[in-house]
Every structure is written in structure tokens, then in C-alpha cells.
């Protein structure tokens, strides 16, 4: 090859060094694109299968409970001694009117472990409307310091997610969703709603909106206060849930012993800026005074 041609090739490689890799790059891009679409399709299929599995589990539990309701009582051992059957007395009629026979009692009474609330219970900024139903056959419905009963419903007064100087009532719910619960926080006007797999996930999302209003990402730390924001760690709530016999089957849950120092610690924790409207503004006032 002529020296001039070699010099031109060398100059071309310097100017456009990726020219010989264009074909390989295009092939790699196509492979990556195909893998992304395939991965998305697999994720969608897994999500659909998970939804079907949750629905099947719920249907199985419903049918099992219904079957237990129709199940006959256990066999009673037969006594060989013959007993003469007493003839029931006929009730006397009053003014010629025969009294109506009483309705026979049900053979088997269905057990209902839902903890009902006669009237709302208020503790500080939290109001409990429903304690829900304790689910003990799966470990996702409780932790070492809190129980997450399905159907639990409470409200908490805290700073508005659009205006921190305005109070807002947030509705906190524990929703039964198969083997693991779903947690939900929603404002009173239904403009804000977040659902997550844990109380901390929902609470952290709300605190991130508060921090955006303040112009900082971590001015108010969430500090894993999700259970507290829902009111699940309040001593009255824990003591009420511990009264239910189902709480004894929550393996790993440590029962709360109500003492005076426990109440003081809880009152101090309730003033945390991540869960208290007053605590939030006290923290902001101290921050402004320093700067």
C-alpha cells in the first residue's frame, strides 16, 4: 500500500475512532433493547400471576371459613345406659292464645376475632376508630414492637402536605392483602394517597413532601416512625390488642408492660417532628433561631 494511503487510514482512525465499532455497537443496542422489552414483559407476567395468587388465597380462606361454619360438631361418645326420655310439659294457654315456640339455638357459634370499638378512642393527635382483626398465621402482620391487625383504622392530625402551617387529618389504614398487609395514608380531601408494603414506606413518602416544602431533603428525618404515625405503638392501642387471645400466637412480638416510665417515653416520642404538628414547628423555630 502506498505510504500516502496508510497515512490517510491513520488520520481517519484518529478523527473517527469508533467507525469500525459502529456495527458491533448497533448489534449490542439491539440486543439490549430486546432484553429490556423481554424483561418488562416478564415483570408484567409476574405481577399478573401474583395478583391471581393473592385472589386465589383469599378465595381459599373464604371457602375454608365457610366450610368450617357448616362442619358438624365432633361426635359425642354414646352412653349404653338407657335413659327414659322425659315428656315435655305443655304450656298453659293464656286467654286461648298458644305461646310461640322458641327458636332453637345454633349448634355451633362462629367465632369472630374482630376487636370492635364502641366509640372512637383518642390519644393525643391520634383517634382510633377500628382495631381490626389480628392475623397471626403469617409473620408479616406483626413485628417485635407492633401488631398490624387487618382492618385497623385511625386518623392523625399533622402538617398539610401542601402547606405546613395548616393542620391536616390523615386517615391511616391496614388493609388485608393475602399473606402480607398493605398500608395506606390518605388526607381528608382524598388529594393525597399513598399505599405501601410497610408503615415506614408510606410515612417516608409523606415526610419527603414536607421536606420539599421546606427546601431541604433531610431537614425532618422520618426516623422509621411509620408505626408511630399510624398509632400502632401507642400504649392504649398495644394494650388493647394484647387483650385479644390471638395476640399470644404472634411469635416474636414482645408484649408491652404498661408502666409510668413507658408513658413518659411515649409522650416524648409523640413530640417527634415527623409525627407531631407542634413538634414540627418547634423544630423549625429552633432552626430559624440558629440561622
What's a quick, concise take on this entry?
This protein has 291 residues and is an alpha+beta fold. Helices cover 40% and strands 12% of the residues. It is built from 7 helices and 6 strands, in the order ααββββββααααα.
Layout of SSEs?
Layout: H1 3-15, H2 22-70, E1 121-123, E2 126-130, E3 153-159, E4 167-175, E5 182-187, E6 193-196, H3 199-214, H4 226-230, H5 235-243, H6 260-269, H7 277-290
Subcellular location: Nucleus
InterPro entries: FYrich_C, FYrich_N, TBRG1
Keywords: Nucleus
What oligomeric assembly is this protein in? single chain
Total helical elements: 7
Radius of gyration: 32 Å
Q: Roughly what fraction of the amino acids lie in strands? A: 5-15%
Unreliable parts: 75-83, 103-111
Based on DSSP secondary structure assignment, what is the total number of beta strands?
6
Helix content: 25-40%
For the largest beta-sheet, the strand count, sense and barrel status come to: 6 strands, antiparallel
Protein name: Transforming growth factor beta regulator 1
GO cellular component, one term: nucleus
Region (Disordered): 74-108
InterPro entries: FYrich_C, FYrich_N, TBRG1
Please name the defining characteristics of this protein:
291 residues, 7 helices, flat, FYrich_N, nucleus, FYrich_C, Transforming growth factor beta regulator 1
Structure, described:
- This protein is an alpha+beta fold and 291 residues long.
- Helices cover 40% and strands 12% of the residues.
- The protein has helices at residues 3-15, 22-70, 199-214, 226-230, 235-243, 260-269, 277-290, and strands at residues 121-123, 126-130, 153-159, 167-175, 182-187, 193-196.
- A six-stranded antiparallel sheet has the order 1-2-3-4-5-6.
- A hairpin with a 5-residue loop joins strand 5 (182-187) and strand 6 (193-196).
- Mean pLDDT is 79; it is low at 75-83 and 103-111.
- Residues 74-108 are annotated as: Disordered.
- This is Transforming growth factor beta regulator 1.
- It is found in: Nucleus.
